[in-house]
Design brief:
Length: 276
Amino acid sequence: MRFSHELIVPEEGLPFKLFLFEGWNGNYFREKHWHRSVEIFAVCRGELGFFVDDRMWRLTADEFIIVNSNEVHSIDAPRPNETIVLQIPLKMFEEYFTEEQFIWFTHEPGKKDERFMELIKDLFRVYTEKQIGYNLKVKSIFYNIMYFLVKEYRLTQIDQDSVRKNRNLNRLSSITSYMKENYAGELTLETVARVFGYSPTYLSRMFQKYAGITFKSYLQSIRLGYALKDLESGKYSITETALRNGFSGSKGLARAFRKKYGMLPSEYREKTGNGH
């Protein structure tokens, strides 16, 4: 399995990020990943499959799920859907942390589900229509959503295993952010361990235990993600794409690309209409 840490950047001028789920067209699977933000998926049409800490949740129309900060999850969207995604930076909840910058929300349906879903839909409608004064209105709706989150869905009794896991994923998030900034160079387990003051053995175990993946596989996943974007842009040859993204050459990229995406980079380029 390949996990990844996702960095969430709020909309400029607004304390959140709001968009339609990228797997709207179906036939989509988002591999396991985690991020520091709280994330809400609200299904308006169709259905989604959610895997959170190895538990399966099936969401249908007018249902939502709250994904906690540093909670490893994956998403399965085999069929078309319309899903609103609201991402809230963890710092927005700092007044309600229990300990160690920790806050936890329940996944279980609550008594305010219908009203909460209406608020998410209203937020998206006002945000997309962008009529005069919309930024004031969306902030009003957003803070109402925040109120429901901390009042109706926040858990105040948290087991220490969850706190410990959160602490370690926080550390791992700093490391994966560094890897995303330096992925194109000669990045090794020894180099990264030295930067963060760990032994290579300890860092290797950290990846395995808390992210369920090896350091090498995680790094390759980052490189493949950026290589994919280069191929989609059509700006670079396959060899240039490989070298720009930390691969030794086109053969190394081809091997890794085929293993993950089931096709060669050249085939993907043709498929996206960027063949030369």
